Amino acid sequence: MLKRISLQNFKSFGIRQDVPLAPLSVLVGANNTGKSCFLSLARFLHNALRGGALKREGGVEAVLHRPPHGNGELVVGWATEQGEYESRSSLEGDIRQLEERLVHHDLGPAWEEDGGFLRFRVKAVIQPPPSARKLFEGLRWARTLAEQGHEEMKPFEALWSPWVNSRLLRLDTAALGSDTNAIDDEWFPGPVLKDNGQGLAAVIARWDEEEREPTVDGRALRSADPRRAAEFRRFVMETIPEVRAVHARARPDGGWSLVVEQQNGQEFAGSQVSDGVLATMGFAAHVFAAPRGGVLFIEEPENHVHPLRLRALVDMFRRAVRERGCQVLLSTHSPVLLNEFRDEADCVLLFRRSAEGTRVAPLTEVPWVREELATALPGDLMQAGFFAEAP
Fold first, then answer.
1. Boundary (domain end) residue, out of 289, 307, 323
2. Is 270 within 8 Å of 278 (Cβ atoms)?
3. Cα–Cα distances in Å, from 106 out to 81, 103, 109?
């Protein structure tokens, strides 16, 4: 689980910020204060472990803060319960890796500097010198060595697994309700649910499959999960009482259609269902599809969702944290949703924009906010524009 994220000169972040994280963290603040930039780190580092993160993010200039602050370096780092990682890169010309540290609390560093080279714990494995090193290259090599079966590197997997198992959710109701074929991913068995919700019908269909002999790559057995399908449907029907059933119906071309059945027996195609129902199903599917220990970065879950259903969403997020060790980071502009955390103000992070870039602090560590919280709910302060006007 992520305990801290450190950023400097990354998008809206200028001067270094060490952001503390809880199992369930809530991001608040006015528009354009850096919440979306912070959440986008999930996509950036998920892609960094595959390679090509800068290109996928839109290029160097889309990632860097201009003008640079502090010592002028790009810093990206995080800490987990097992250890920490930090990358420092020069911003002169193309981004060039200056230093990488991957340290396990019990085992020490994953590699050592040796004459300008990186020498991993696996003997005789040497990296290019810093002058030729690309962004996050040491981290990618460490993961490659672990996947190749080098036991010395296996314990370090816990340090990068949050990003392997991360998702940045920006649901698109048109994508959620559309007919779809199965979408595969090299890191996950069976069809996957894309970040925007595309593939929902195919995922439900695969969950519904009876367990059977695996295919050559083992995917059929691993992705069939009737129990997960039942949990998903139970949540949808309890949260949206007018829904009696949710089906994934096979199409002649081998794809799947989403069908929602109401209590009166009427059936509607996914494209005919309200945005609120689709959004609720999309969040539920992502939560129940998340692997144990997965990290969900969620942007404004209140969009399209009725205020009375927000409590059910928050309760679902809490169960995922409690029962499956997942972690949830969500941003919100909803006073109703924020008031669900009235007794957990220390997990609410206030984002503010300054001349030196985004600044972040827990509500309980901002003096003028802490004083107001003694007599007012956090959602009421938000509704009164208190966070937008914070100095």
1. 289
2. yes
3. 11, 9, 9
Q: Which of 4-18, 84-98, 213-227 has the lowest mean pLDDT?
A: 213-227
Residue 44 CA to residue 85 CA, distance in Å, equals 15
238-297 per-position pLDDT tens digit: 999 999 999 999 888 888 899 999 999 999 999 999 999 999 999 999 999 898 899 999
Average pLDDT over residues 149-173: 92
**pLDDT tens-digit map of 169-183:** 999 999 999 877 665
Residue 168's contacts (CB-CB under 8 Å, 6 or more residues apart) are 39, 40, 42, 43, 46, 195, 297, 299
**Rounded distance between C-alpha atoms, residue 88 and residue 16, angstroms:** 12
Angular region, 165: left φ>0, alpha ψ -120 to 50, beta rest:
alpha
Distances (CA, A) of 171 to 34, 121, 150, 228, 283: 19, 41, 38, 20, 8
Cα–Cα distances (Å) from 1 to 4, 81, 296, 304, in that order, read 9, 7, 11, 29
- Residue 103: which domain range? 2-165+342-383
Tell whether 182 and 161 lie within a shared domain.
no
Q: Express each pLDDT in 329-379 by its tens digit.
A: 999 999 999 999 999 999 999 999 999 999 999 999 988 888 889 899 999
| C-alpha to C-alpha distance for 203 and 282, rounded to whole angstroms | 11
d(CA 284, CA 109): 38
Q: Is residue 308 part of a domain?
A: no
Q: Determine contact, residues 259/248, Cβ cutoff 8 Å.
A: yes
Domain annotation covers residue 298 = no
